[in-house]
Structure formats: structure tokens, C-alpha cells
Design goal:
The protein contains eleven helices and no strands. By secondary structure, it is mostly helical. The longest helix is centred in the C-terminal third of the chain and has 23 residues, at 139-161. It is elongated.
Amino acid sequence: MPRSVQITKEKILTAALDVLIREGYSAVSIKSIAKELKCSTQPIAWQFGNMDNMREALTREAVTYANQKMMPTSTNCIEAFWQIGYAYINLAFDTPNLFRFVYMGESRNYCRGGFNSILTDRGNAVLIDKLYQYLNISREQADILFQRMIVYTHGIVSLVVAGVLNCTREQVYSIVKDFGLDLLSLTGANLDVQAIISSITEVISQ
């Protein structure tokens, strides 16, 4: 009978992601993955063939990991909206190497596209639909609100990850919260601002 495969693709990708998160994308190589797994380079070369195939698979693994980290748990669309934003900030502070790889262009295999891709992403589109109905605003207003929040949040955390801004996680939370509340006020929706602030505070403390 043939020997069972001890070093599977899943184990290799987990090890590669660990190296990426801990040391950065430039440290990811067949040799560094083999060292992480405490094995020779042969199983990795056999499973993926070459480093290009490995990079493509690692990109998918990294994006899946990041998406799981940002999955909202609340069924309330306002709370879910803030949960995604704060999870995005947490991802940058907790795993800056992963953030650079997925969201700052280190992975050329992963590209979202233009501004409209933010709105057409399936998960985002579902949340936007809930937002405009909940806030009783137009779909266009909800699109603008969501798009601007993502671009603004990404801009701040990218500056932090790049070392341009030196600030704490709590400071970024506060800046993003204030910007989001300003955007909500501009929609003209009849909102209970105190209830929203309480909701945001609860999300942060989770």
C-alpha cells in the first residue's frame, strides 16, 4: 500500500500563513516553510510544484483568514457595520504583516478593483441593503456611507501599519467612530445618536 501523505497542502498553507503573519511576506519561502514544519523541502515542492503556485494558494488562504476575522456576529446592521470596521482596525494592529500582504499590495495575486468593487462585494452588498432600509435613506446614500467609511478606515490603518502615524488602537477607534457619526448625520436620517453610541461602545468592549 502507498504511504499516506504526512505533509498535506493544508498543513503547508497553515505553516506558510504562520510565517507570513510572524515575519512578513518576504520571509515566506519553501525553505522557511519547511523549517516551520520541521521537514525537508521535498513535500512542499511535491504538493505545489513551484513557488508561484504556492503564492497563489497562500493568497487565498490569507484572504480567507482575514475575512473570517472580520465576520460580524451581530444581526443588527448598525452593530455589524461597526464590528466590521473595528475588526479591520484590529487586524492591522494584531497582524500588520498580514494586513500589508492582503490590503496594501504585497500580494499581486489579490486585487479588489476600483471603488465600485467595494459596493458589489457580495457580503458588503447585503449589509448595504440592510443599512439603507434600517436608516430609511436611499440606496445611493447608503453606498456613499459604506464606501467612504471603508476608504477612510483603510487610509488611517494603512498609515499606522506603514509607520507614518504613531497612535494607539483606541485612538483609531475614536477617530473612526467620530467620522462614522458625522457621515450618519449627513444622511439626514432621523437617528437616535445616543443609542448608536451605546451600540458602538458595546461593540468595542466585546
